[in-house]
């Protein structure tokens, strides 16, 4: 007998429910909350319906299946954690980024862990996860590095410059596995000061001539 999540209730497109953008955001927030709490495998449409007091049939009519709902929740809640960071120095930018990422690590790290295995089995889910949590931050950090190169703070061909985003975002993901603790703002600040900046030939808070 197929499970409810693998056999969604069919409905004609003309019967698609009218869900306001505000209600959709409530549903998306509940989906992400449940993912953080219990993981992807334990997430069910019934659970989302119960948490949001929404009819299960409404969820199926609107999104069709659990994977489609999760993808919609990720894409519908995309946000920029590193908006408008430009302190005038690369060291200052990276330290500000470390604080911003660290402040969100308690929300984002559990979500990434919850979805990692499932995302490797679903190209669409992997794409949505990258779009929501990874690609915007890589682009923002790479932009900081480029500005630093344009200001002459580091050489354009410095090999270490390529790996700044991977270091900062990678350690956020790795610390819970290695030490059982989130990479909070204090930890990421130390990581930038002791690991990333020395590799770039920079000192924390020191403007480069």
Please characterize this protein's 3D structure.
With 209 residues, this protein is an all-alpha fold. It is built from 8 helices and no strands. It has helices at residues 21-38, 45-52, 56-63, 66-76, 90-121, 123-150, 164-179, 185-200. Helix 5 (90-121) runs antiparallel to helix 6, helix 5 packs across helix 7 and helix 5 (90-121) packs across helix 8 (185-200). The radius of gyration is 20 Å and the shape is elongated. Residues 1-16 have low confidence and may be disordered.
Termini separation? 70 Å
Which sheet architecture does the biggest sheet show? Answer: none
Tell me the radius of gyration: 20 Å
Helix content: 55-70%
Report the structural category. Answer: mainly alpha
Q: Which whole number gives the mean pLDDT?
A: 87
Envelope shape: elongated
- Give the ordered list of helices and strands: HHHHHHHH
Runs in which pLDDT lies below 50 for 5 or more consecutive residues are: 1-16
Number of helices: 8
Range of strand content: under 5%
- How many β strands by DSSP? 0
Fold topology:
Layout (H helix, E strand, L loop, with lengths): L20 H18 L6 H8 L3 H8 L2 H11 L13 H32 L1 H28 L13 H16 L5 H16 L9
Helix pairs in contact: 1-2, 1-4, 1-5, 4-6, 5-6, 5-7, 5-8, 6-7, 7-8
């Amino acid at each position: 007998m197929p499970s409810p999540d693998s056999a969604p209730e069919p409905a004609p497109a003309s019967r698609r429910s009218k869900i306001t953008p505000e209600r959709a955001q409530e549903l998306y927030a509940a989906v992400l909350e449940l993912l953080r709490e219990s993981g992807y495998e334990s997430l069910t449409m019934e659970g989302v319906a119960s948490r949001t007091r929404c009819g299960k049939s409404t969820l199926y009519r609107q999104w069709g299946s659990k994977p489609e709902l999760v993808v919609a929740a990720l894409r519908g809640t995309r946000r920029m954690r590193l908006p408008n960071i430009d302190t005038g120095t690369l060291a200052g930018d990276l330290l500000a980024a470390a604080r911003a990422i660290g402040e969100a690590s308690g929300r984002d790290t559990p979500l990434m862990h919850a979805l990692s295995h499932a995302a490797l089995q679903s190209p669409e889910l992997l794409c949505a996860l990258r779009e929501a949590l990874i690609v915007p931050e890589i682009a923002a950090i790479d932009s900081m590095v480029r500005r630093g190169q344009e200001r002459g703070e580091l050489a354009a061909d410095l090999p270490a410059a390529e790996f700044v985003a991977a270091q900062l975002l990678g350690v956020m993901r790795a610390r819970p596995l290695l030490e059982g603790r989130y990479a909070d703002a204090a930890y990421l600040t130390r990581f930038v000061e002791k690991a990333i900046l020395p590799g770039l030939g920079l000192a924390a808070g020191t403007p480069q001539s």
